[in-house]
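Throughout our pipeline, every protein is held as a single compact record rather than as scattered files. This encoding replaces a full spatial description with a residue-level series of whole-number codes. The remainder of this section carries one protein's record, kept here as part of the documentation.
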Amino acid sequence: MQQKSHIIELYTHFCEIYDLDYKFQERELHAWRMMLRATGCTNITPYNKDVSCNEFWTNVPDPEKDRKTIAKLYEEGLLNVNSQADTLWNCFRNSYNANSKGIDGKMRILSIIAENFTYKEIIEQLEVSPNSVSMARKHSRINGPGCPALEKPVIVRSKMSEVKEKEFQLFFADKANVNMSSYKMDAKTQMPVLYLKDQKSALWEKFSATYPNGMKRTSFMSRLQNSRFKYREDLGGLCITCNDYGYQPFENLIELVTINFSNKIQRDQLIHKLECLRRHLKRNYERELFVNKDGTADH
């Protein structure tokens, strides 16, 4: 190994002795280092093995000058010490950061390697989120690694048939299912507010049994949402007037019991009785009322 400089890079000279794809054992490298030290050489590598496996050695008696020279070159970035893997990750990181977000940007770039490396490796090397890796893998499986996204199919939604709409209207025109407000109007439709007499799930069961070939459950529920149909729990199970003057006081009574009764057993018993009475007014009280022939109501 004859050259004008006293400094050598160990693995570069190994290429002149071994095949390019030769894999060194640690004991072989240890033997080479011992032999170099025995001949008066000194290791002047300015970084540890985590940075690169390249090693710089010098055979001068006083290696400090060469050590400073190598350290200066390393600080200035003039030493080509990066491994091929590091070079690949750096190139890929630059390409990923240069692209914009989206299915045709960062996701498409990341999909090139998403299936070939683990979540941990990609997250550590590129500083991306697990969700980005997951989406990139999905993109790779659907469209291919690095391929542009396929055109999404055009979804054509058919409108609900008039027959099914008519069935829905007839069902909620039945007084067994709703109570119509005598004065309150829905702001959007300008039609009277309808108060549901039962829970939405129970009404759906009744509707599907009455019209087995009618609209589906999702369509049924969506028409009840944010429309002139009001679920009675919104009013505490009572009409507006009763809600204001009869139902709300229960909350006040429960609060008074909680404040004034220190005995937990007595307090819990009274609260339980109040809740039972409120539940009775909400669900069963109106069923116990009946109208006499003269128009008066009895309980």
Summary: Strands lie at 7-9, 42-43, 56-58, 178-185, 192-196, 229-231, 290-291, 297-298. The chain has a mean pLDDT of 80.
